[in-house]
Each structure stands twice: as structure tokens, then as C-alpha cells.
Amino acid sequence: MATITLHRERLRYNFERLDYLFKTKYIHWSVVTKILCGNELFLKEILALNPAQVCDSRVSNLKVIKKLNPEMETIYIKPTPARSVSSVVKYADISMNTNIETIKSLSEEAVKQEKIHKIIIMIELGELREGVMREDVLNFYKEVFELPNIKVVGLGANLSCLFGVLPNTDKLIQLCLYKQLIEATFNKMIPYVSGGSSVTIPLIFKKMLPTGINHFRVGETLYQGTDVYKDEISNLLKQDVFTLQAEIIELIEKPMVPDGDFGTNLEGESYQIKENLIGKTSFRAILDLGILDLDRVNIFPKDESIGYFGSSSDMIILDLGENNQNYKVGDLLDFSINYMGALRAMNSNYIEKRVV
């Protein structure tokens, strides 16, 4: 069985440096836990760091977090589905919303559960994912402020996740100005301007982050040690918080070109013969994981001499060339994995999870 490993000290190193950065800038931040897919073993490692908040896009994951630590403040970070209103109120202290009818339902449910449910209203800033259109913001807030058992604690925006629209000073200043406009119009205090995510962190170092942005939601930079803005590693943080190991279940020297009549493979792709490889052979290693578990473009062999040959639903086939490392059946190969690779691996029931 393949294994995804969380390296505790690398995670703690990144958390402490991010926590110090945000505290020096008087910024609140929430750890995004959706990559952990509700895994109790790994969630315990996050909660042991004592974050102020955690946020997730799955109610089932928030339920696990509340089971492990009922006092932890939780945020549901996508618009609430109508059929999940009851559990969102139960397991999320705060939710991010864009639909007035949904917020009315949250209000009714909060009254039933005798709770005050906090909300952050998301505003559209050009990424075209979730967000109230800017021309509708004031009327939207007016309706929300009238609802019982609902407390507006912020406004926010999502950038970079869908089309890769990068945050910049202009867009973030717009968000801060909406806060000022709402507070002045309705005589209400809005604590959070949640305009920050992993991709926004580099703006802090460039001194381009407006001072009004005081809430971040951070996942990828914590777990991957990346500068998401430039799509490169950060020299200030540790990489390989997650690593992957997979076992070689077959290793045989085989031709480099398939033989026979070609149709399409299970992904609908047609193989194109490379004539320069006809008659050549290489050592081929089959791993005990496949497309069902993750996409090969998200994993990177530690041994850079290893090449990729192909994948099927539950096997990945690697090209070991002449096998100068003398790999054999039963050996474990080590891989770095990116954010999407870790997310897919965490979501697979066929990959073991462990902490070192």
C-alpha cells in the first residue's frame, strides 16, 4: 500500500513563521484544513498547533474538528447548500455566503438551535467564483442586518482559485472601501476584511497589502512552503510537509513501444508510436497506486533519473532506464507531491496516512 506522510516538524516550522508574520502585521488568520479530508490523525496535528481558527469547505470535516476540539472556532468557506443549513449552523461558527435566501435559512436555523451564527459576505472582485456583485452590496447588507440570530463579522473575496486572477493593491483597496462604506451607511462594525489567502502573502513582503486587509485563509503556503503568487517555492519555509511513498510491485525489462493494434486507453487517449524507440528496452517498474488515487502530474520522484511511462486506474508505470540504482520488487520509491497531489492522496482510501 502507498503511504502519504505528514512531517510534523516541517508543519510546525511553517506554522510558527506564518503565525509570527501575521501577528507582526496585526492580521488574523485561519488554517484551511480541506486538504486533510477530515482525517483525524492529521487534524490532531493541526489542532496541536493551537490556531485561532480553522476553515474547511466540507461540513463533514468541520464535524470531525468539533469532535476533536469543541472550542475551536470553525469557518465554512463556500456558499452554504440549502440542504446543509442545519449542519452548517451546528458545526460552523462562521460561514461565508452570497445568497440572501440561504442566509435567511441560516437565520431560521440559528433561532431553532438557539445560536448566533456569524457570517462573512463574499464580494465579487473579478475571479468570477463566489461573490455578490459589487452594485448589489449595500442592498444585500441591508437585508442581512435585519435578520435575527445572524451576526455579520466580515466581508471577503476569493481570488486566484478559478481563473488565476491575482490579488493586487487596487482590488484589495476596493474591499477595504466597501467595509468603510457599509460601516458608515449602517452604523455597524465589520471586524474582518477577509481578502487574504496563500496567494496574497507575497504582497505583505512587497509592502503592497492595504492595511485594512486583516484576515487571511491559508492552506497551500502552510503545507507546501510555496510562494503561490509566483508559483515557486519560498526560501522562508519548509517544503515536503507531505511526502509520498509507493511500493514497486513489478520490475521487468520490457520493450519501450507497445505491440498490437491500438484503440484508446481508459482515459480516451490514443498512443502515438515513437519510431526511434522501436527495438529498444528499459526496466519498467509498476507502482501500487494509480489514477484512482492521484494524477501523475502532481507527484515528483526524488530520484530524478526515473521517468514516467503510463498509468491505469490502480497502477502507475515508471521507466527506470537501465536501473542503475538496482531497484527491485518490494522497494519503496519516494515522491514529493504538490497541493493537488496531497489533496487527491488524502482523499484516497487506498493510501495509508502516517505522521513522523
Please tell me about this protein's structure.
This protein has 356 residues and is an alpha/beta fold. The two termini are 17 Å apart. Helices cover 29% and strands 26% of the residues. Helix 4 packs across helix 5 (100-112) and helix 6 (137-145) crosses helix 7. The protein is elongated, with a radius of gyration of 24 Å. It folds into two domains: 7-233, TIM Barrel (Alpha-Beta Barrel), CATH 3.20.20.10; 242-355, Elongation Factor Tu (Ef-tu), domain 3, CATH 2.40.30. One of its GO terms (molecular function) is pyridoxal phosphate binding. Its cofactor is pyridoxal 5'-phosphate. Pfam families: Ala_racemase_N.
Q: What would the average pLDDT be, to the nearest integer?
A: 94
- Counting DSSP H or I runs of 4 or more residues, the number of helices is 10
CATH evolutionary superfamily of the largest domain: Alanine racemase
- Tell me which CATH architecture of the largest domain applies here: Alpha-Beta Barrel
Strand content: 25-35%
Beta strands, count: 19
Distance between the termini: 17 Å
Helix content: 25-40%
| Secondary-structure-derived class | alpha/beta
Question: CATH fold name of the largest domain, please?
Answer: TIM Barrel
Shape: elongated
Order of helices and strands: EHEHEHEHEHEHEHEEHEHEEEEEEEEHE
Using only C-alpha atoms, the radius of gyration works out to: 24 Å
GO cellular component, one term: cytosol
Pfam family, one: Ala_racemase_N
Cofactor: pyridoxal 5'-phosphate
Keywords: Isomerase, Pyridoxal phosphate
